[in-house]
């Protein structure tokens, strides 16, 4: 047998090479070094809530008496789907049927399924920037191009007028992605904004992929409008949901994709069948959330609102820091009086220390597709009030030193 | 503001439309109807093991005392990765470091990551057919073309000679996928076969994606050779692994991708960072598997080997059925004396009954990319011996009636 000599060499795919690294990845070793030097590092960079997972969910771990941990249905268990249906009906005020809900492995899998089902390789998706940095991982995996539409801090990161979306439209645009309430900006969009965006999608045959995983986290009496509430929203709306933040259960990896478009549902279902089933233990304990009253969400939201107040009042008292009052989620994107926030973030971890402590922040550049956001950072306020106060004070002292070149 | 009229209409993506349905999907409602008629349906079509999940894993569910179910590291927890490293060292005889192991959401996610990282949209992958039907879901999601290389029942579904692989090679071939031990055929490949395939990959700059989720399930004193054992296997081998079958824990959705290629690992890690983390509860209980002795695997394998014997002896006593003795996994692909096994499978569920029972089988067509396999079925033997005996007897009676046109 003769073997034809082959000149190809082993190489990973272009998309494998293009996969974006986490925006804070290069900072993490610096934080670790600071910790090893004995410096306390306050983490304003991580979205892992410190709120306890509800006992009515944790208790169910003790109730699992299965002898075999079997596959669940690819859609998710009926019990879990029914608990979600009730949640949408009673808590969100939205009527969906269980056959319109697909349980997913976190909101992450719902995003990937939605991207794959709504657009082909080489198609464009409109993303409001700054955006959740991991969207870029999923657009890369799905072979989609991000066309950014910029929201601006001076507008509280609310939507630009429809004309800006119209200008961003290309022949290959297939979907618009909106995270509401927004990670990273903390913006909660008004009904008018959502109606505008829905009209834009309707007029142009685009899907609206609404990432609503922070739905409950809204402050000052606001309510987050679900895209499932929209008029005409029947066939072009895909909602990405997750239990991670709602019940402070990020580690169980359980979410959902919700759509009233049967073709889209079916395409996602076939992807779900390919991967067999969503996590089973997670679904079993998730059903326990049915026992939570309204007071659970109210208490959690009150807690985050107090933190929001501490952070916001503290930050806007720092000379040169610009920030509109965050409306929801537990993030915000302040603009700092520095030329390059990444340099500042590195400096905080390598050269700064005050009373034995420093603070880790996420430069906002990684949340933009354009070259904007250079002076901005993203802050997650999932620390208790005392730690938040200490973090803000550290930022104040650090900025004073940094801007004076001390 | 004027809105340009847009002629595009809302439509799901080509790849969304192309997503394959499960090969048994259209049979499932027929089985349900049979059940409703009062007919007992023996399921030879499902790969869900009935063996109990080890108590040392289940018991850990009672030990979880976290107050917050937090994200785990994107790579998986150190404890879980270390337990896998030890497993590979002690049970597989393979030395890998924890930085070469990526915990995944089942073997399914490892396959998707491997496909995305090894090849670009439009590239070709060589798949030995018949193949695990869900590979087609992942090639569709990843935009890859399947180039089938056929294995034949008369050869016990062992590999064809290298010349057949050479002929199947295209300029866009990037990887070869081998499931060993094989689902659906039950074939366990010899060291010579693996060396041949490794040589083929090495000479042509191809990745070898080795799906080894049935590694333990080998009979008659065989041993499954891991692709990680191969000479020169350092940079082109990607192993897909899963705890689903090894510990009868399909529902926890926990697996791993293992590669000594740092670039490939890094690309997959960045995908893993995008989806944040693998299931956390699953990782916690999985560590319990460290307490299992060699006797656990031996007992389980003995059980499956007895079932294999019942099935094989029973099937080959049926006139016209062709089947080589299955060597591993818990599947086999017998050829039936029927023109179209799908018609026969439908007939079993709609027209056949014997002593109040019938049997559900998976037509093998869905496991082929060519039009082969029309007379073949896939059987999963995850039933106890009595039920298996009853199922085989039903098949015997049914084939007698069906082939006589009764």
Entry summary:
Chain A has 406 residues and is an alpha/beta fold. Chain A has helices spanning 14-18, 28-36, 55-58, 78-92, 106-118, 135-142, 162-168, 191-204, 262-274, 280-286, 294-316, 341-350, 385-403; strands spanning 40-43, 101-104, 124-129, 145-150, 173-179, 207-211, 237-242, 255-259, 331-332, 357-360, 362-363, 377-380.
Describe what this molecule looks like in 3D:
Two copies of one chain form a homodimer. Chain A has 406 residues and is of the alpha/beta class. Chain A has two domains: 20-52 and 295-403, Aspartate Aminotransferase, domain 1; 55-291, Type I PLP-dependent aspartate aminotransferase-like (Major domain) (Aspartate Aminotransferase, domain 2), CATH 3.40.640. In chain A, 36% of the residues lie in helices and 14% in strands. Chain A contains 13 helices and twelve strands. Chain A has helices at 14-18, 28-36, 55-58, 78-92, 106-118, 135-142, 162-168, 191-204, 262-274, 280-286, 294-316, 341-350, 385-403; strands spanning 40-43, 101-104, 124-129, 145-150, 173-179, 207-211, 237-242, 255-259, 331-332, 357-360, 362-363, 377-380. In chain A, helix 5 (106-118) crosses helix 6 (135-142) and helix 11 runs parallel beside helix 13 (385-403). The termini of chain A are far apart. At the A-B interface, helix 1, helix 5, helix 6, helix 7 and helix 9 of A face helix 1, helix 5, helix 6, helix 7 and helix 9 of B.
Order of strands, main sheet of chain A, comes to: 2-8-7-6-5-3-4
Write down how many β-strands of chain A occur, each being a DSSP E stretch of 2 or more residues: 12
Rg calculated over all Cα atoms of chain A: 22 Å
Helix content of chain A: 25-40%
């Amino acid at each position: 047998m003769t073997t034809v000599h082959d000149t190809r060499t082993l190489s990973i795919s272009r998309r494998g090479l293009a996969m974006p690294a986490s925006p804070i990845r290069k900072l993490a070793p610096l934080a670790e070094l600071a910790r090893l030097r004995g410096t306390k590092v306050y983490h304003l960079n991580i979205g892992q809530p410190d709120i306890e997972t509800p006992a009515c969910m944790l208790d169910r771990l003790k109730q699992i008496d299965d002898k075999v941990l079997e596959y669940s249905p690819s859609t998710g268990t009926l019990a879990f789907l029914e608990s979600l249906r009730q949640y949408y009906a009673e808590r969100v005020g939205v009527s969906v049927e269980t056959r319109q809900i697909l349980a997913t492995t976190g909101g992450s899998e719902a995003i990937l399924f939605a991207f794959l089902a709504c657009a082909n390789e080489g198609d464009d998706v409109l993303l409001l920037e700054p955006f959740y940095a991991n969207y870029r991982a999923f657009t890369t995996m799905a072979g989609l191009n991000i066309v950014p539409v910029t929201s601006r801090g001076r507008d509280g990161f609310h939507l630009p007028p429809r004309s800006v979306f119209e200008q961003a439209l290309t022949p290959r645009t297939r979907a618009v992605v909106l995270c509401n309430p927004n990670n990273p900006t903390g913006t909660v969009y008004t009904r008018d904004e959502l109606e505008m965006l829905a009209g834009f999608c309707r007029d142009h045959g685009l899907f609206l992929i609404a990432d609503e995983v922070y739905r409950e986290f809204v402050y000052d009496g606001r309510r987050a409008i679900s895209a499932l509430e929209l008029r005409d929203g029947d066939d072009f709306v895909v909602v990405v949901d997750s239990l991670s933040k709602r019940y402070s259960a990020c580690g169980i990896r359980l979410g959902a994709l919700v759509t009233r478009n049967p073709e889209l549902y079916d395409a996602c279902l076939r992807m779900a069948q390919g991967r067999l089933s969503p996590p089973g233990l997670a679904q079993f304990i998730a059903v326990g959330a049915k026992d939570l009253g309204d007071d659970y969400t109210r208490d959690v939201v009150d807690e985050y609102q107090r933190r929001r107040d501490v952070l916001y009042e503290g930050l806007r008292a720092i000379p040169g820091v610009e920030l509109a009052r965050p409306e929801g989620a537990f993030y915000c994107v302040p603009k700092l009086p520095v030329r390059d926030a990444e340099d500042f973030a590195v400096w905080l971890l390598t050269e700064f220390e005050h009373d034995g402590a420093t603070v880790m922040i996420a430069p906002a550049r990684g949340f933009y597709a354009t070259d904007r956001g250079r002076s901005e950072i993203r802050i997650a306020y999932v620390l208790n009030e005392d730690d938040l106060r200490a973090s803000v004070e550290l930022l104040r002292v650090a900025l004073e030193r940094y801007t004076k070149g001390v």
